[in-house]
Amino acid sequence: MAEVITPIIATVHVGSQYPDQWVGKLARSVAKHVKQPHTFTIYTDKVAANNFECTEFSHQIIELVDIEANQLLGYFAKLRLFDQRLTGVQPFLYLDLTLVVRNSLDPLIEEGQSSQASLIGVADWNYPILNSSVLWIKPSPATQEVWTAWCEERYDKSHFPGDQNFIFKVFQDKNNEELRYWPSEWISSYKVLLKTANKNRQLAATKLNQSLILKFHGKPKMDSVLAALPPLSIVLRYPLKPWLWRYLRAELKSDWGN
Asked: What separation in angstroms does the CA of 66 have from each of 16, 47, 129, 195, 247?
């Protein structure tokens, strides 16, 4: 009989850019959309504080791991996920804090477990590179190469605006055949859906319903959409279309506002 491996879903939270409570929101959302027993691992520099407000579920184990970020601040702390000395050797699903889980994550887990790729990510919505908001990481020489390249300062780090640019560069140079992408309909961009809704509301609704995850990159973030005043960035972009100012507010309140 094949060994049953408990899935690991992980996130990273360092510094103070996002509230600690967003970790608890994500953990609860994962528990809602992953019915099988699983571990939710939080890689953080706040293990001792533990102000994440995570709810206990019988099928979800919460694990806090000191990410030992050192000088890896902001987005670049995510690069530690490519160091097997920290993560171990079991594959895992990584989720950003700035996203909302809308439907079952089983397809992502099943795709990751069945794939031969060392890394599965999102095809970025704006640039022809990897977006690292949702990753399946299978620890291997190919993934370890990311952390090794960073530690060895193999590239001029000033050329990389974010972690995903660095990850993509390393895979391009060394292990491009080990990189795959999720089906495009599984992870949607809030901004892209908003633009789509401006032209075709039905098409945007169809794409939203197909989405497993809704990613908030740039502005606005989830809290801004739920705030009393509509996001200024949306008001300025669509000044004559007030129905877009509150785009997906009701859905977001249901999926993330708890």
From this structure: 16, 6, 29, 39, 37
Distance of alpha carbon 105 from its chain centroid, rounded?
12
Q: pLDDT tens digits for the chain (258 residues)?
A: 446 688 999 999 998 889 999 999 999 999 999 999 999 999 998 888 788 999 999 999 999 999 875 555 667 889 999 999 999 999 999 999 999 999 999 999 999 999 999 999 999 999 999 999 999 999 999 999 999 999 999 999 888 989 999 999 999 998 999 999 999 999 999 999 999 999 999 999 999 999 999 999 999 999 999 999 999 999 999 999 999 999 999 999 999 976
- d(Cα 57, Cα 53) in Å, to the nearest integer? 13
Give the Å distances, CA to CA, from 174 to 49, 83, 152, 170, 255: 39, 17, 15, 6, 39
Closest by Cα among 210, 214, 249 to 230: 249
Model pTM score: 0.95
> How far apart are alpha carbons 114 and 166 in whole angstroms?
26
Helix (H) or strand (E) holding 71: none
Looking at the DSSP assignment, which residues form a beta bridge with residue 106? none
Number of residues that this document lists for the chain: 258
Residue 27: which residues within 8 A CB-CB, separation 6 or more?
40, 42, 52, 54, 55, 60, 62
Torsional sign, CA 46, 50, 55, 56: positive
Q: Locate 241 and state its tokens.
A: 């279309």
